[in-house]
Amino acid sequence: MFYIVGPGHGAPAILASLWLEGSLTRFYSDYSMDAKGLSKLISGFSTPVGFPSHINAECPGSIHEGGELGYALAVAWGAVMDNPDLVVTCIIGDGESETGPTATAWHAAKYIDPKESGAVIPIVHVNGFKISERTIYGTMDDKEMVTLFSGYGYQVRFVEDLDNIDADLAASMDWALSVIRKIQSDARSGKPQMKPRWPVLIMRTPKVTPNNIFDLMIGMVRTQEVGRRDY
After folding, report:
1. 151-175 residue pLDDT tens
2. Contact 59/15 with Cβ under 8 angstroms?
3. Which of 56, 73, 124, 170 ranks highest by number of CB atoms within 10 Å?
4. Whether residue 163 is found in the same domain as residue 55
5. For residues 172 and 169, what is the distance between their CA atoms, to the nearest angstrom?
C-alpha cells in the first residue's frame, strides 16, 4: 500500500508523521526527536530554510512531488492498473473535489479489472471550507453524499465520530479493505461481480486551527493556513 495526498497544503500531516516515526531524524539530524527538533521543523516550515508547504523530493519516502491541484485520484487509479497486489489510499480534499480532473476521475473505477489490477481507497476529507469560502460538499448532507457517490458506483461509509476519530477511521479502513478483497477474490476465482461497487470513505471533521488557537474560528474559512506563534 502507498499513500497519495491530494489536498492543497497537505504537507504538515505527512511531515508530522515522518518526524514522529523518526524518519526525518534519520535523514536530517537537525530535526531531532525533542523540543529543539520540533521547533526547527515548525519554525522553518514553508520558508526558504525548511520544508515547503507541499511534499517534495526531499521528504523521506516521497515518490513524486505532484503539482497542480486535482490530480490525486486519477494518479491513484492509474497506479493500480495492472498491479494486482497494490492498494492505494488517496486523500481528497473537498475543495480539491471541485476541480474538473477530480470530478472526472471518479469514473476511472469503471476501467479497473479486479482480476488484473489493484484498488484504491478514496478518503474524501470534508471539512466544509476551501481557501475563501464554503465547499460544495460542505453544503451537502449525508443523504446527498450517498446519492452522489452511489451514482458514481461506490459504496459509501462515513467517518465522523470526532470523539473516537482514530478508531472510526481504522474500522472504516478495515471495512474498505474487506470490500476490496471480496471484489478481487470473486474476480480472481472466476466469479466476477457484474458491476463491483468499490468503497469510498467520507470523513467529516471541522476545519480547525493548530491547538484551536482561536476557538471562534473552528469550522470557519478563516482557519485556512493559520500558523502557530509559540515556536
Report:
1. 999 999 999 999 999 999 999 999 9
2. yes
3. 73
4. no
5. 5
Looking at 67, 92, 115, which one is the last position of a domain? Answer: 67
Write out the residue range of the structural domain in which residue 57 sits. 9-67
Average pLDDT, the chain: 88
* 132 contact partners, CB below 8 Å, separation of at least 6: 221, 224
Number of domains observed in the structure of the chain: 2
Picking from 137, 114, 120, 130, the residue whose alpha carbon sits closest to that of residue 188 is 114
Instruction: Give CA–CA dist 204/185, Å, rounded.
Output: 31
From CA 136, how far away is CA 94, in angstroms rounded?
Answer: 8
The amino acid present at 136, given as its one-letter code, is: I
Co-location of 57 and 146 in the same domain:
no
Q: What is the dihedral of CA 4, 5, 11, 13, to 10 degrees?
A: -90
Measured distance CA(202)–CA(122) in Å, rounded: 8
pTM: 0.83
**CA separation for the pair 141, 204 (Å, rounded):** 11
CA 56, 58, 61, 63 torsion-angle sign = positive
